[in-house]
Amino acid sequence: WRTGVLARSWVDCDRSAYPFPPSPACLAPDQVSFFGAVEFIRDSLPEDARFLAVKAEPLWYYSGRRSVFYPIALGESEAGFLPYLRSEGVDWILLGSLQVSEPRRFAELVQANCAGLRLAGTVPPRTYLFELRRDSAAAGEDLGACQAVADYMEANVGRDFSTE
Predict the structure, then answer these.
(1) Beta-bridge partner residues of 122
(2) What is the largest CA-CA distance in the chain?
(3) If we measure between CA atoms, which residue out of 100, 85, 87, 90 comes closest to residue 54?
């Protein structure tokens, strides 16, 4: 029964669009959101921009942008999170909803440091792009990043990644 439901949901999946972007009919909504952000990154951000993202491999494959090793960043304390990212040359954080760690530990670290970030964009339903502020004097002036993280966390309340 589950296989039949899954097969029916992929009937409109057109794989001829590969390698980029994958057809939205082939993806879950959060995957479509992620690839929308990747397309923006590829087309709009500098080639040397460096990221923290859960899905570093597809981000690099489809945009050519490098990322730091995600598990190490998540092991940082709240106070050490942004200093670590800065020490690794990270300019951007891509927060999506593809893995269970994103709305938990990753979002908690982003939320604790939101005043040091600038919201650069969102792609519905739950993908957010943040830029690390380099100027500490500007930190906290724009609370858009803090509100975005709060919205993100609210949108992920009660999600069961085992069924998606």
Answers:
(1) 128
(2) 57
(3) 100
How is the beta sheet containing 66-67 ordered, strand by strand?
66-67, 50-53, 92-95, 127-132, 117-123
When pLDDT is cut at 50, 70 and 90, the band that residue 38 belongs to is very high
Percent of the chain, pLDDT > 70?
82
Nearest residue to 100 (alpha-carbon basis) of 21, 164, 24: 164
First to last CA, the chain: 16
**Res 69: pLDDT:** 93
Amino acid found at 4: G
Q: How far apart are CA 159 and CA 69, in angstroms?
A: 25
Rounded Cα distance, 63 and 94, in Å: 13
